[in-house]
Write a structure and sequence with these properties.
heterodimer; A: 418 residues; alpha/beta; D-Maltodextrin-Binding Protein, domain 2; 2 domains; seven-stranded mixed beta sheet; five-stranded mixed beta sheet; 18 helices; 46% helix; B: 298 residues
């Protein structure tokens, strides 16, 4: 009888304790788009976070990429949705202006420390003296090459091109055409679906002596210096050197994946697309330099805290953000998703730098630039239209550049006057 | 309530029940048709961008639209789809139905074959056609052209050929539906008219012109209206067959609906998109009214 009583009392007590603990549990919600490896990585990070912070529960929600931006844009203003949210860096400005984000408190995210610890491209996330979001990982670009096609063309697969001239020369040996001149195997991939607009904007324009935008990002400058020469170089790949047909096989990565292209420039997120493809013997190297100039384009997704949460939830959200941007999280992210750590101290470890696949991307980070897009999709479209004018309408490059610069300046002006 | 109901006359009771049964469709009509239409009208007068609260800006969106060259290009594209697509699809489907009606052998099978594309998922079909149009070595049309000794055609990568290239699968996919409707229309014409005509020794062409086509008038009217609305609202094929679903190259294939979608859901310019939606609504209304009047039986 006595034992029974004690057991009952203990049970009641433990119930009361757990109820008390539950009352103190803060639940926060984290949103990102669905990409299998990213979801796995966040699930792992939530587990370690919850183990270290017993009072906090994190609910992880994800959507297909195509709906992601619309859902975030609809939910956050309505006071629904996430406490911590993942945003493309190019969207942050718009969200910040709409008062949907909370600045990261300086006592937890010291501005000087962020600037010391993270890659300088993260500066785009700073406004009004505070940071509004931080990335776990960053992405850069590199040159993928098909080793088998190189050997077949009599090239040494251990000596991929290091300059644009070498790229043109080597691609010229790989390209195969039928008697009518139609491309069968491309030397270099080129087409509207791909990352080449970044290659031109932040790399070629600089290598030809210019800069695509003013330092404050408010003025288009590619119509002055470097832009036309860079675009001419790019267009020449198809027209003058005949290394491919613009739009060959619809999507550039599809041509490379199918083993029908020698060289292909793309982002680090593409590694997974090529890994494990049967009969595709590929490797990757740093982007070719030109005129002795090396450049690269880096982009990233940031984690921000939504302005809707307050009190204990806000504190928990900040804690979780801190966890997401910790050194351990970054190394885990690299191993799980293949995306590069956002801090040089983590990224530039000797193990990472000498990795045959990640290495070239990580080395590229050291000299990379990031475009301060106001509307990435629109600005990309302006580049694609410019290339269509050059390749379909045979418009001279200088004229096409002028039209594009005018359109884009209008877009920037509309954005900044608001 | 019960006393009130019992005090009603039979006619009033019937009216009460009629309203009760009508309430559900009426509710749906108001909630799903009328309210969104009214709300869109309101949004078209604001600068709403989804992220910030709406500001009333009067007719500014309509003024902007008037001065927007892309809007006019897109507007004209939309009519190209209609003016090329509608007549071609009607003539083709009538020809198929007319001859199919005279075939007895395997008629059901042939009809089913025509109908299958109509049942196919538009996105999957559009992607298959997108690959058909690719340059060699993967595009089947170009492979055939090159084999026959012709030069490659750019198809979707051309400012002049792209619209036609997108229209082709759209016509093909809608053909089955129109053929079936035409067949039903043809069957509904009483056999006695034809017998009488044949006894009088009238030729085939005259029978077609004087009996078949006039008696098919309601069928033709229905198909003209339905297919016009279909071509004016073309979206899925363009979205799936052009780069990034943008209706390129250089906006030459972008129809109004796709323009509205892009404005609303990639640029979040809800107000401006709503203004263009109102224009589309008025165009659809006008086209339908004109067609109903023009083809009305006298």
């Amino acid at each position: 009888m006595k034992t029974l009583f004690v057991t009952l009392a203990a049970a009641a007590l433990s119930l009361a304790v757990s109820a008390g603990a539950r009352a103190q549990t803060v639940e926060i919600e984290y949103w990102q788009y669905f990409f299998k490896e990213r979801v796995t990585a966040v699930d792992a990070l939530i587990k370690t976070f919850e183990a270290a912070n017993p009072g906090i529960k994190v609910k992880h929600t994800h959507f297909p990429y195509a709906q992601y931006q619309t859902k975030v844009a609809a939910a956050v203003p309505a006071g629904e949705g996430p406490d911590v949210v993942q945003l493309y860096y190019g969207w942050l400005e718009e969200y910040r202006k709409a008062n949907l984000l909370a600045p990261l408190p300086k006592d937890q995210f010291d501005v000087a420390a962020v600037e010391r610890d993270f890659f300088p491209i993260v500066k785009a996330m700073k406004a009004d003296g505070a940071y509004w979001g931080l990335p776990t990982a960053v992405r850069s670009m590199a040159l993928f090459y098909n080793k088998k096609l190189m050997s077949e063309a009599g090239l040494d697969p251990s000596k991929p091109p290091t300059t644009t001239d070498e790229l043109i020369a080597q691609a010229g040996k790989i390209v195969k055409r039928d008697p009518a001149g139609n491309t069968l195997t491309a030397g270099y991939t080129m087409g509207p679906v791909g990352q080449d607009h970044h290659w031109w904007r932040e790399i070629l324009v600089r290598q030809f002596g210019g800069q695509a935008y003013s330092d404050d990002g408010k003025k288009v400058m590619y119509d002055q210096k470097g832009g036309a020469a860079g675009l001419q170089f790019y267009a020449d790949i198809a027209t003058k050197h005949k290394l491919t047909t613009y739009g060959f096989m619809d999507e550039t990565q599809a041509a490379f994946r199918a083993g029908r292209a020698g060289f292909h420039i793309d982002g680090s997120f593409r590694i997974g697309t090529f890994q494990g493809v049967p009969n595709l013997d590929w490797a990757v190297t740093e982007l070719p330099s030109h005129n002795g100039v090396k450049s690269n384009f880096a982009s990233y997704w940031v984690n921000g805290v939504s302005s809707k949460s307050s009190g204990a939830k806000r504190d928990a959200a900040m804690k979780f953000l801190k966890h997401l941007t910790s050194d351990d999280a970054m190394q885990l992210w690299l191993k799980t998703t293949g995306e590069l750590p956002a801090k040089p101290s983590v990224a530039l470890s000797s193990g990472n730098k000498s990795d045959p696949v990640y290495g070239p991307f990580i080395l590229g980070l050291a000299y990379s630039h990031t475009t301060e897009f106001v509307n990435e999709a629109k600005q990309r479209q302006i580049f694609l239209d410019m290339m269509d004018r050059v390749s379909l309408q045979k418009m001279p490059v200088a004229e096409a550049i002028k039209i594009a610069a005018k359109e884009e300046q209008q877009l920037l002006d509309d954005h900044f006057k608001k | 309530m019960r006393a009130w109901y019992h005090a009603r006359t039979v006619g009033q009771k019937q009216a009460v029940w009629a309203w009760i049964f009508l309430a559900l469709p009426l509710f749906f009509f108001i909630a799903i048709r009328l309210f969104p239409t009214g709300y869109t009208t309101y949004v078209s007068l604001t600068d709403w961008n989804l992220l910030r609260p709406k500001n009333f800006i009067g007719a500014a969106n309509y003024l902007r639209l008037w001065n927007d060259p892309i809007f006019w290009q897109v507007f004209w594209n939309t009519f190209k789809y209609l003016l090329i697509g509608m007549p071609i699809s009607l003539v083709l489907s009538f020809l198929v139905a007319y001859y199919l009606d005279q075939v007895r052998f395997l008629q059901g099978t042939i009809r089913a074959l025509y109908f299958i594309p109509f049942l196919t998922t538009a996105a999957a079909m559009a992607w298959v056609w997108r690959w058909f149009y690719q340059p060699v070595p993967i595009g089947i049309f170009n492979l055939i052209l090159v084999d026959l000794g012709f030069s490659q055609q750019p198809f979707l990568r051309s400012t002049s050929q792209a619209l036609g290239s997108i229209l082709a699968p759209a016509i093909w996919a809608g053909l089955g539906f129109q053929v079936v409707i035409f067949l039903a229309g043809l069957r509904a014409i009483p056999e006695t008219y034809y017998e009488a005509a044949r006894i009088d020794g009238v030729g085939r062409w005259t029978i077609l012109k004087e009996i078949t086509l006039p008696l098919l008038r309601p069928t033709i009217l229905f198909l003209v209206v339905v297919s016009s609305i279909g071509f004016l609202r073309i979206f899925d094929k363009v979205y799936n067959m052009t780069v990034d679903g943008k209706g390129g190259p250089l906006n030459t294939t972008r129809p109004l609906v796709l323009n509205i979608y892009q404005l609303a859901f990639t640029d979040y310019r809800m107000g401006y998109a709503a203004a263009q939606t109102m224009v589309l609504f008025l165009v659809l209304l006008a086209v339908t009214v004109v067609q109903l009047r023009a083809l009305r039986t006298k």
